[in-house]
Amino acid sequence: MSSLVSHPAVVDLDAATCSHGAPSARNLIVTVFGDVVVPCGADTELTVQQLTELLTGFGVNERLVRTSLSRVAGDGLLASRSEGRRSFYRVAPGALSTFRTADRRIYRGLADGWDGQWTIVVLDGNEASPDHRARLRQELAWAGLGTVAPNVLASPVVSADAVVEIVERVGGFHNVLVSRSTVVDGAGLLGQGELVRRTADLVDVEQRYAEFVERFERFDDDAIASLDETRALKLRLLLVATFRRAALADPQLPAELLPDSWAGRRARDVARRVYGSVASASDRRIGELLGRDVVTDRGRFG
User: Fold this and answer.
1) Are 92 and 123 found together in one domain?
2) Is 96's pLDDT higher than 90?
3) I need a labelling partner for 157 at 20 to 30 A (CA). Which of 83, 114, 130, 180 fits?
């Protein structure tokens, strides 16, 4: 036990709570549903008590979990039902595509190969209400598009078909312009370099990745081998929730548009190693709490 508590990485893990050193309860709840629940099946439900047990290492209680669940449900991400005095939560049917889009960006990263083109989206500023346009812009941002100008978004990696699916899912629009085309560079033109600068704050994203590496690279084989199942689960959720914040802010640009020293590459390598190392132990703990066998895909962060 003495070697366990003396390892700096494990000391940091034990000290991490929602009020100090860990993401918010809301962020962690979204992480649980994305990392644990959705892979078990779209209809998988969790009770408040189960969620509290899953997050017990972060210093949460049922009251905080209930409050945070209400907020996540209010955002349209979760649906609930009551059975006597118990409440059950699952991913809202309309939010499944949002979770799956996030899943791709977090666990899979950028696919190899780029056709050299950009997807450009232009919204009609006079169509729909400001709130409805804001919702569409948010959905497009979650998918990975960045803002070029008011009501203009762009991405080199999000396909035109993916944008069309989002527009149709949000509904209420008839004049959204979607184009997949080559961006022309030249004097007086808004070229690729400026598009990159406008659609992504790469300095901020790289800083997030660098902080992730600094924190989680310390979990070497000795530290991980010393973790019991409860700590393994806490490390898994902390790792995913922390990486998630960087990955969802990352436009995941093609290698041709990134600096050679891009910290995101190293961060993904660290995430793959640590996540894979704690997957089995954390699965056992999750299985105990959910009353079912759980086998996580070891190829995540590939």
Assistant:
1) no
2) yes
3) 130
Euclidean distance between CA atoms 4 and 225, whole angstroms: 9
Q: 90 forms bridges with which residues in the sheet?
A: 79
- Give residue-wise pLDDT tens across range 116-156: 999 999 999 999 999 999 999 999 998 889 999 999 999 99
Q: Are residues 153 and 88 in the same domain?
A: no
For residue range 194-220, list pLDDT tens digits in order.
999 998 889 999 999 999 999 999 999
CA distance 149 to 123: 11
How far is it, in rounded angstroms, from Cα 253 to Cα 29?
Answer: 28
At residue 302, the pLDDT reads 72
**What does the pLDDT read at residue 2?**
45
User: Partners of 149 in the beta sheet?
Assistant: 152
Q: What is the 3-state secondary structure (H, E, C) of 171-225?
A: CCCCCCEEEEECCCCCCCCCCHHHHHHHHCCHHHHHHHHHHHHHHHCCCCHHHHH
φ, ψ at 119 (rounded to 5°): -90, 120
Indicate if 217 and 69 belong to the same structural domain. yes
Residue that is written with structure tokens 């790792």 in the block: 239
